[in-house]
Amino acid sequence: MAELWVAGSAVREVIPLDPRFSARWHAHDYPGPFARWNYHPEYEIHYARRRSGRYIVGDSVGLFDAGQLVLIGPNVPHDWITDLAAGESISQSDLVFQFRQEWLTQCEAAMPEAGALQALWRRSLSGIEFTGDAARRGIASLEAIGPAVGADRLAHIFSLFGALSTAPAHETRTLARQWVPPVHDPLAAEIVGRSLDYILENISGTVRLGTAATLAGMSESAFSRYFTRSSGQNFTALVRKLRLAHAAKLLQQTGDPVARIALAVGYENLSNFNRQFLRELGETPTQYRARVRGASRPE
């Protein structure tokens, strides 16, 4: 079982060593102890099996649907957030495969062919989302790793790596800028985790830097600097991204008027909401709704 470093409301996962396997394959429920903002020194391939919502990878915030496949490099902060009713949970919602740089280095020393994967590992420092046939092939191999043992397990692992490393450019998307968090500061996970809880609990209302600073036991200026250094992004910018990501989900999933959705994500001024949405997503709320609904309509 994984060990936890617990700091207030935040959890930092320490990926356990299992002498039977060279890497960790793990399916978990949502919500759960590891389904929150965290980072760790292992690479992680994350598959959202049975849920959708908003993701945070590094300084990127966006929407995800069931079936999303992402490769994350060492110490890239990440979180997948799903809105559920009180008491609701999703069994086996996520599947992750985690492995260490030391293992990759050993593979390259014993098998020079593995060196061809280095470009993939470098790109993973920004997070990579895979789509299309690359994602389908990757997911099939990822699922197959779990019950496999011995040579079969290794074959599925390298089949997974092969699917990701040969993905054409139009089936990959870089998610974030490269950034290294203060990995030796356990307080960072606590403060960012507590701040995210506060933001998400008040996404439809007022979110204040001063309140978040008080929750962290800091002055506003000290909290602002610390949050930026710890999370890789400005507190106010993160609030805006999370509000707009939630708005995008409502535009896609409901028929509510744009004005009502603006209020539901904390924007009292419709013009400001439209302006911020256009700047963040590159199109107006109306254009976004028409595009995503048109794309989801069966031909």
UniProtKB/TrEMBL annotation:
Look up keyword Transcription regulation and say if it applies.
yes
Name all HTH araC/xylS-type domain ranges. Answer: 193-291
| Keywords assigned by UniProt, alphabetized | DNA-binding, Transcription, Transcription regulation
Annotated Gene Ontology MF terms?
DNA-binding transcription factor activity; sequence-specific DNA binding
Transcription in keyword set: yes
**Known InterPro entries for this protein?**
AraC_XylS_family_regulators, Homeodomain-like_sf, HTH_AraC, HTH_AraC-typ_CS, RmlC_Cupin_sf, Tscrpt_reg_AraC-type_HTH
Recorded protein name is AraC family transcriptional regulator
